[in-house]
Description:
Blueprint: H1 3-42, E1 45-54, E2 65-72, E3 78-87, E4 90-99, E5 102-107, E6 120-121, H2 123-127, E7 130-134, E8 141-149, E9 155-159, E10 163-166
Amino acid sequence: MSNQATxxxxxxxxxxxxxxWSITVARRAERTARTERSVREAAKVSAWISTTxxxxxxxxxxxxxxILVIRNSSDAVIHDVEATALMNKxxxxxxxxxxxxxxxxxxxxxxxxxxxxxxASCSELATGNRGSRAFTKSPNWKLVSLRSTDAFGAxxxxxxxxxxxxxx
Length: 168
């Protein structure tokens, strides 16, 4: 084999190695970008514990209640929602089959057959002449964790103080 033929084969092999390496790097970058987008979408779902009251009778304790607020800022419904919260130092678990985009709330009803009412839009609080304020200082009223499945079937979990992680 002549020097020119050897040089041509070496050039082909080097080109092939660089092409395979470039494709591998591009696929890895695409997977990383897709994962980062998924995590950003999952982080668009949040929740907290609030108290509500009647605006017309703010001192009337019988008009006060405690709620779980779920904000789904994504463009799609989330499924199989499970929230664990401390409600007056007691752990309470909320579950819903779906949660639409927007802000929704469920009222905590301790001691009843169901501890939580069904999800309703937070706009109902305003139209129902109700005020709302998140618990921000008491460790006795807080969200512990929130799990949900996104529109692509990925299961996400938020844990207080740890952030969002992919469960499966």
